[in-house]
Amino acid sequence: MKASFPNLGYDTYALKTFVEDLGAEVIMAPPNSRRTIELGSLHSPELICMPYKITLGNMLEALELGADTLFMAAGARKCRFGYYHYLQERALAHLGKECRFIPVTQYSPLDFFFKVMPDIFGVSPLRVMRAVTKMLAKSRLTQEFRQYLNRKRALDFDGAEKVKPKALAVIERANTLGEIRAARGEVRRLFGLNGVRPQVRLGLVGEIYFMIEQSASQEIEKELGKMGAEVVFERSLYRHIRHLLFSDPTFARSERLARRYLAESPGGEAIRTVGEAVHFQQQGLDGVVHIFPFTCMPENIALEALQRLSEETGIPVLSLSFDEHTSRTGLLTRLEAYVELVKRRRRAGTARSPESRVQNPESGVSRTMNRKPATKNRRAGTVQSPESRIQNPESGVSRTVNQKPATKNHHG
User: Fold this and answer.
1) Around Cβ 157, how many Cβ atoms within 10 Å?
2) Which fold has domain 199-373?
3) H/E stretch holding 227
4) Which fold has domain 2-106?
5) CA distances to 119, 219, 313, 315 from 216, in Å
6) pLDDT digits over 249-277, tens only?
7) What predicted TM-score, i.e. pTM, was given to this entire model?
8) Where are the alpha helices (DSSP H) in 29-108?
9) 341/393 Cα distance (integer angstroms)
10) What is the pLDDT of residues 19-58, one digit of tens each?
11) Do residues 58 and 29 touch, judged by C-beta distance below 8 A?
12) Measured between alpha carbons, how far is residue 61 from residues 212, 271, 276 in Å?
């Protein structure tokens, strides 16, 4: 078996170790690139989520390198992710690509250990358990690496980028539990943080693929680090596997904290997005950055809940949606403005105010953090919406900018 699977950020190393431990040869897809996105988009429905397009591109590139078996995560409930594998398998068949396509859904642990994986790889349940144990250990290592990297970038960006390839080489070489334990200490030593924290710390929340695969969000963690902000996150492969094994307490905490803003789950990771944002606010972080695919229904519902959180607590929230047409220049402009706002608030020593406003890069509509009823413009007789106002973080005076009539969204 020459197996492959879509790239998953730094956690790709943990998945590779898992599949190799079960006896398969792993054919890695090339790192995500513009070609990956264009290849996947060419053979995808126009309005399907961005993760579908990128993962389909990964599959096509892996098949070009000789893979004969493809694994794809699958899901259920109220999210289009549950249908990805159906559509991708049909797209590959339509293109004449011959391969074995294996969807891996969120089975119960018993099914996964004793039936699904043994049947696929022809191994014993004990071997599957050992492979999962090692994958958990390595995904914990990659999670810690990412945490160290984000902090080091905010303190010493050039130093972090110099250390990064050395630390990744240590992670890739660690193939036994003993080597993984030793690698954790070596990675920590390489970054040499010594307990120092950056002044600006931002929580990152959103759709799980965008949280784990850095290229999907155009390396947003790297860009924020370059601006002197440490990116703090909770979502990772390590925590997701623990959740599937019913051993992750952070999921229950997220459900409890999100209940004030979402009475029930709209699907996807919306509950975790909101719960983690509330947790970051309670932990005293300076802001929350929310990333998700354009047209993602659950995360758009979470976006409205995050607006309420900002209104009530004053924590600035920046929501960013992405597709294959997202402008990098526009993204960087919005990130720079947001980080500068957060830094000014810290310099001023002000409490978090619900008057902060941020911009949605896709729609061009600024998201109001202190939403007020629309007021009539007495001279023009028109309605002036608070969506058309921006806030001066120094004076606290808002002014109206570039107000245009609302237009219909033809994408629905």
Assistant:
1) 15
2) Rossmann fold (3.40.50)
3) none
4) Rossmann fold (3.40.50)
5) 33, 7, 30, 25
6) 898 899 999 999 988 888 888 999 999 99
7) 0.82
8) 34-42, 50-64, 84-94
9) 7
10) 999 999 999 999 999 999 999 999 998 889 999 999 999 9
11) yes
12) 20, 34, 35
